[in-house]
Design goal:
Elements (H helix, E strand, L loop, with lengths): L1 H23 L3 E2 L2 E16 L4 E6 L6 E2 L4 E5 L2 H26 L3 H33 L5 H30 L3 H26 L2 E3 L4 E6 L6 E2 L4 E18 L11 E5 L8 E8 L4 E2 L7 H4 L2 E9 L11 E7 L2
Amino acid sequence: MKKMLIIAGILILVVMTIFLVRQLSNKQKDGIILLSGNVEVTEVNVGFKMPGRIIKLYVEEGQRVNKGDKLAEIDSEELKYQVIQQRAYLNEAIARLQELKTGSRPQEIEQAEANVRYAEAEMIKAKRDYERAEVLYKNDAISAQQMDSAKKVYVTAQSLYKKAVETLSLVKEGPRKEEIVAATNRVKQAEASLRVYEERLKDTVIYSPISGVIMRKNLELGETVSPGVPVYTIGDLDKPWIKVYVKEDKLGLVKLGQKAEITTDSFPGKIYRGTITYISSEAEFTPKNVQTQEERVKLVFGVKVSVENINDELKPAMPADVRIILQ
């Protein structure tokens, strides 16, 4: 009789062991598949586009941020001066272009006309002096050197008069089209250069690209950061998911859009609502951190169960149990 009881007890233990193993693995029971996984969130690394020394850090780990919140700054004094310099270059180029488009001012034309009258008077005077010198030279009243000197003065006066007349003509005609085109191009070049420096100045400040929680602060105040190096890592706790793995023979029961219930050890008895939003199309071996050595050699398919995270209670890497409700 005692032997029968021992045998019965062993059989009960075997049955219970089989039951527990099945409970821990994927199974279908009463229209439900039970799975286990961990909470995962989208993580975004945020860094600067340019190198520099960090002068301000506005947030700390665990702090919630909204999209567009200022996170950090690097030293920007040199870039500020460069922006001022480029803006001055642009204003100078614009003024020059406007001057060319406006043409000559009345005062400039009057000045050019006055120069012509003066040069003409000087030329007439030099001509008279030269003609008088010719008469005196013929009468042996002056030397040949004096005669040559008078001639040179007259020739120079003629040249100055001709130049004054040409200058007056140019002033009246105004700038050439080629000059205006060249000045326009210089304005465009100055505008582009200013935009480049203004964008660099903006890049000395980083803002949060998403709303979420600061998961990690990777650098400290005063450190020199290189381009692309993450200063902060932000987690989107509003849209977490549970990554679970479904065995090959159960994959046909799982569909996109199916509802699921999620529970955690941290909040016993509380049920979070979820939806299947992704089913992998490629089989893989069970991850080593999910099942026993025997289970790890079995092929599974990754499934993502998106879940509502009420009050940010679900945290990254938190273990969770998933009940997929079959339809």
